[in-house]
Amino acid sequence: MVSLFQQNNTDSKCLATLSWDQSTVDAQRPILYVCIIASIVHAAFWLQLSLCPSVRQKTMQWLYAYLATDIFLLIRFFFLFIVHTTSTECIPTRAWELFVAYIEAIGDNYLNILEVYILLALNLCRYIQITRNKNVYVTNVRLLVVTHIAIYLLPAFFLIIQLPIGWGELNSYSGNTCDIGYTNTFAVVLNIVVAFILPIGLNILVIGASVRHVHLTSQLQQAKHHVSAREKYNRSLVIQFTIFYTIWFLLWSPNIIIYQFTSGVNTLTIIGKLLNFIEISIDPIIVAALDVRFYQAWKKTWTELKNRSLKKFGHEQRRIGPAVFTTTVNTVQQRVTKV
């Protein structure tokens, strides 16, 4: 392991190597196959989004922001895989070496932190919608814009600032990968709190508050022998998000925890990343399956395609029909004449 800021830079022609060794390439192949599948699934999802205006709504902006981070994680992996498997032995510039190292060491952690805070924002918006019957996407547009900017910028600042102040060190492993090594226990604990404990704890609290509100409201409605459509919708929102969040947490959390305590490529890091990319590959399926708006869009698209097919088939039948009828009439006339 070598710190990239402490490498001997006297040889300007050959600074270091970006090529992975064969064992690292073999370890990354299962992740590569999962990423290819994930790319196909996401491509199908975003194609549907472009074809169905009904699912392009302001209320779904956090879902799309979340799925966009999946896309960036896939792009990051393919970029690093190509660079590390096609690079020559020598790096032409120090700037390129540091750029690749930062993308590799910080990119994964940054994007995964984005995901958990984006889900927290989505969760809070749904909680306000459920408890106050308020559409924050219309009434609090400026606050939403500020929240978006804060979520995207603050984690990046938090991760990068640790390097110049000495809390973290950008490490390179020969023939292997790059990552951030923390120099003291306080930095490790702070990163765990910011990246995992704080957002997960807040998400659980908000989900619990939503479940409690829906439960209490449901009891009141049952006492009146009436359940409104709004309460049914709120209940479905809570159930949908709880299912999604449970699956997401089980597949996402191992990677973010392992990242804080391990370095380089080993069995634990490979398992954590593999689970993370499996979660990425099924994200569009879960989102589409749990949100009734996607089902309605699919149903509408299928109905339109079926109607077009029936119209085309009926048009062809009408075009063929007269010819058959005329032939039949001519045949009957010929038989009558012979008789």
TrEMBL record:
InterPro entries: GPCR_Rhodpsn_7TM
Main location: membrane
Record carries keyword Membrane: yes
Signal peptide from the UniProt entry: none
The keyword Transport is annotated on this UniProt entry: no
Membrane-spanning ranges: 31-51, 63-87, 99-122, 143-165, 185-211, 232-251
UniProt keyword annotations, A-Z: Membrane, Transmembrane, Transmembrane helix
GO CC aspect terms: membrane
G-protein coupled receptors family 1 profile domain segment(s): 37-287
Location(s) in or outside the cell: Membrane
Protein name, entry field: G-protein coupled receptors family 1 profile domain-containing protein
